[in-house]
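We treat protein structure as text, and this decision shapes the records that our systems exchange. The tokens are whole numbers drawn from a learned vocabulary of local backbone shapes. One such record is reproduced below, unchanged from the form in which we store it:
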Amino acid sequence: MSRDFTTVAALRDAGVRRISVGGALARAAWSDFFDAATDIAELGTFTHLGRAVPGDRLNKAFDTK
């Protein structure tokens, strides 16, 4: 999956049992990286960084305790 052409619910209803996003999640992350870097370099602002995931949420997501 790499485009917004359907939903998980629609795929489930069609009998799909496995969805592969391949590298799409990484490309989405890189898109935000490039947008934030462009914001800084070209506009001189840090607005895009305000939409970043908070550190505590990341810590909880990757907590291995």
User: Anything to note?
Assistant: The mean pLDDT is 90.
